[in-house]
Design brief:
With 132 residues, the protein is α+β, with helices and mostly antiparallel strands. It contains two helices and seven strands, in the order H-E-E-E-H-E-E-E-E. The protein starts with a helix and ends with a strand.
């Protein structure tokens, strides 16, 4: 599954962790209220599949949302930069699935701060993934 593959990549690159109480916990499909420093992954649909050399190519899209500690915009901005570096790959295998590439759709975007003054920054990605 897409979010499992992306989470595993972030964790193996040292960008996030699996421990739900640790800083930079990687959550899939939700943004937990704690810890303050968190990375949340969301599926955002995608584009129609492409036929390519007799194999079907999926074109999923996803969002990485980084929330930092109170007033920690620079910390969050640096973390989403690290996530981008880890995720923008070409011709690689993630959790047994071949990815032709993963690319960011734009520069990171600030979502402002939440009720606890924790800033969030998001970045949307497009992937090309083979089913074979």
């Amino acid at each position: 599954m897409l979010l499992d593959e992306i989470a595993a990549k972030l964790q193996s690159a040292g960008v996030g962790t699996t421990a739900s109480t640790a800083n930079w916990f990687v959550a899939k499909g939700f943004l937990p209220s704690s810890p303050d420093k968190c990375i949340a992954l969301f599926e955002t649909g995608g584009f129609p599949n492409d036929a390519h050399e007799a194999a079907l190519i999926d074109r999923p899209t996803f969002q990485v949302r980084v929330r930092s500690n109170d007033y920690g915009y620079s910390t969050g901005r640096a973390k989403i930069g690290a996530a981008r570096t880890a995720l923008e790959v070409g011709n690689t295998t993630l959790s047994g699935r071949r990815y032709i590439h993963i690319v960011a759709q734009s520069e990171p975007v600030s979502l402002g701060v939440d009720e606890n003054n924790r800033p969030s920054v998001v970045l949307n990605f497009t992937a090309l993934r083979s089913r074979t």
